[in-house]
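Objective 1b. Sequence-to-structure analysis of Protealysin inhibitor emfourin.
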Amino acid sequence: MSDQTDDGDGTDAVVVILVERTGGVTGIPRRWRAEAEGDDASSWLPLIDACPWDGSSRPGRGADRFRWRVHARWHGADREAEFGDADLEGPWQTLVERVREHGRPG
C-alpha cells in the first residue's frame, strides 16, 4: 500500500496508525499497525482528530507500568504522542483499541 495522501488530485487518502506498548512485567514491546484508504480512511479521521496530540502527559508511576507511543500519518500530517498507562483513556483509549482490533501486529 502506498503512503500517499489525498491532496485534492483525486488520489485516495491513506491513514497509517502505529501503536507501541512498552514496559510491563516482561518489558517486551508490542506493536500494532492499522492502514486505511478511501472511505475506510475517513472513518479513522474523527478518532485521530479527537486525540490531544499536543497535550502534556504524566510520567508512568509505579513499577511495571505500560508506556504507549502512538504515531499517526494522514492528509499530510504526521503526529506522535507518548504517554503512560494512566493517560490511556478517552480518545486515546478509543483510538488504541480500534488499532488493536482492526490493525495487525507489527
